[in-house]
Write a structure and sequence with these properties.
binds 1-O-alpha-D-glucopyranosyl-D-fructose; 18 strands; alpha/beta; Oligo-1,6-glucosidase, domain 2; 3 domains; 15 helices; eight-stranded parallel β-barrel; TIM Barrel; five-stranded antiparallel beta sheet; Immunoglobulin-like; globular; 526 residues
């Protein structure tokens, strides 16, 4: 019988559909492409996939601008292709989870088109956050909020009679108007979307901007010092950034959880960009989110003290909530961890060590496609950039294309088996041939085989059960022991160190001739 708590220690694999595999040769990945590569995921040993959006969309934010949340965009396939994918994933014991984007819709959603044609104050306008502007003729935005992509979070429309009109809120791109979560129709529509996909067999959801749907009453200005920090690119995500984490968001999560409760085993993970322990833990409740990404691991540098602090605060966040931690190193929004840790040989080595750290920790792990290949971020040339951040920031922020380069499957030249065309939606770099799946497959020293072995041990070895206790370790090292008996020993420094007693089960790089753990390496010991 199905275990309703299957997700508590699961390894999820995030697929960014544009960049995973392209079956129809148009240079953009698609659902049939994903289906054709399921054996890679089965061989890797992941428990579930998370598909970033594949819904009908004008692709202003590559699908995070949803025009119809209950259909498939033709660039990715159709509902029949989705059903085939779910069936073939389930046949391999891989669960399928999908993205849910409740904070905003596309401006090409039928609701927004109706809102533009309707009058101020109408029920159609009330599904979004329309306000009159400030200043004599309403020519100033209603408040000082910036968009997460740069520029103001407000866009002024032209009324149907041709006069300059109201403003609408968009915390992201202008083509992503925020929905008004004070409107009951918005709730009912989200429930319809949840049930639509759950009835089609999905096993859960990743909830986009899960800290963003509710807005503070009266939409007050941001404090000047907080605004200055945001504009300096510090993106503090503090409790003083009142655009996010408003109290009302918790009611919405309780509503979602009630719907999920009708489907045994259905899970949800929130993209909660809240890094304050007390604020984050408020989302993790038996009647709210079962899981929330802990992004402090993404923000942590490759230093033993920071990593240890990251692990401690993540564990403190979930303590007493009944939820496990959700560990993540990379995703489609951040510079890949190999690059963050220094890139090249050093970054690759640290990336391997970080993978063994991530996979030894109690709870849920999310891998991002390409993590298992040790991929680095690759910055495309200016003219190839597609992320809305580039335009909206006035070309001051290059955006997130660097972590969205299509995956290399086969050795050779671009597109390395990703597509039959070399004209991929983002250019693929020269020199990726050795990183391709087929190049690494069966090579014992490869990052792909390291992940495979690690996932197999995590599944089969009984040392991985229970919580963790930190173990004394030399400077620049971090060590902990799982209740089941496995010890994870990370050397984040440069010099080899002696390991505690125990038998090495797996190491990210070979031990020295003296049996010591080299720098930038992790060992699992039983
Ligand atoms: O990201 C939301 C988010 O808050 C951060 O990732 C960050 O602030 C943003 O990337 C700006 O740097 C989610 C999705 O993961 C992202 O891809 C979407 O663009 C965004 O929501 C809007 O839907």
């Amino acid at each position: 019988a199905a275990n309703p708590d299957w997700w508590r220690d699961a390894v999820f694999y995030q697929i960014y559909p544009r960049s995973f595999a392209d079956a129809n040769g148009d240079g953009v990945g698609d659902l049939d492409g994903i289906r054709s590569r399921l054996d890679h995921l089965a061989g890797l040993g992941v428990d579930a996939i998370w598909l970033s959006p594949f819904f009908t969309s004008p692709m202003a934010d590559h699908g995070y601008d949803v025009a119809d949340p209950r259909d498939v965009d033709p660039v990715f396939g159709d509902l029949a292709a989705f059903d085939r994918l779910v069936a073939e994933a389930h046949a391999r014991d891989i669960r399928v989870t999908i993205d849910l984007v409740p904070n905003h819709s596309s401006d090409e959603h039928v609701w927004f088109q109706q809102a533009l044609r309707a009058a101020p104050g109408s029920p159609e306008r009330d599904r979004y956050v329309f306000r009159d502007g400030r200043g004599a003729n309403g020519e100033q935005p209603p408040n000082n909020w910036p968009s997460a992509f740069g520029g103001p979070a407000w866009h002024r429309i032209t009324e149907p009679d041709g006069t300059p009109g109201q403003w609408y809120l968009h915390l992201f791109d202008a083509k992503q108007p925020d929905l008004n979560w004070e409107n009951p129709e918005v709730w009912a529509d989200l429930e319809a979307t949840l049930r639509f996909w759950l009835d089609r067999g999905v096993d859960g959801f990743r909830i986009d901007v899960a800290h963003g749907m509710a807005k503070p009453a009266g939409l007050p200005d941001l404090a000047q010092d907080v605004l200055a920090e945001i504009e300096a690119g510090e993106n503090p995500h503090t409790s003083r950034d009142i655009r996010w984490d408003a109290e009302g968001v918790h009611d919405i999560h309780r509503f979602i959880r009630k719907v999920l409760a009708d489907y045994p085993g259905a899970m949800a993970v929130g993209e909660v960009w809240v890094t304050d322990t007390d604020r984050l833990r408020r989302y993790l409740r038996p009647d709210e989110l079962p899981l929330a990404f802990d992004f402090r691991m993404v923000q942590s540098r490759w230093r033993a003290d920071e990593l240890r602090e990251t692990v401690s605060s993540a564990l403190a966040t979930v303590a007493g909530t009944g939820s496990p931690t959700t560990w993540v190193l990379s995703n489609h929004d951040v510079v890949r961890h190999v690059t963050r840790y220094g890139g090249g040989l050093v970054g690759t080595r640290r990336g391997r060590a970080a993978a063994l750290l991530q996979l030894a920790l109690p709870g849920v792990a999310y891998l991002y496609q390409g993590d298992e290949l040790g991929l680095e971020s690759v910055e495309p040339p200016d003219e190839a950039l597609t992320d809305p951040t580039w335009e909206r920031s006035g070309h001051t922020r290059r955006g997130r294309d660097n972590c969205r380069i299509p995956l290399p499957w086969e050795p050779g030249e671009p597109a390395y088996g990703f597509s039959t065309t070399s004209e991929t939606w983002l250019p693929m770099p020269a020199g990726w041939s050795p990183l391709a799946v087929e190049s690494q497959q069966g090579q014992p020293e490869s990052t792909l085989e390291l992940y495979r072995t690690a996932l197999r041990l995590r599944r089969e070895h009984d040392g991985f059960t229970g919580g963790l206790s930190f173990v004394d370790a030399p400077a620049d090292c971090l060590a902990f022991r799982r209740d089941g008996g496995l010890t994870c020993f990370v050397n984040a420094g440069n010099t080899p160190v002696a390991l505690p007693a125990g038998t090495p089960v797996l190491t990210s790089v070979p031990l020295t001739a003296d049996g010591e753990l080299p720098g930038d390496a992790t060992a699992w010991l039983a």
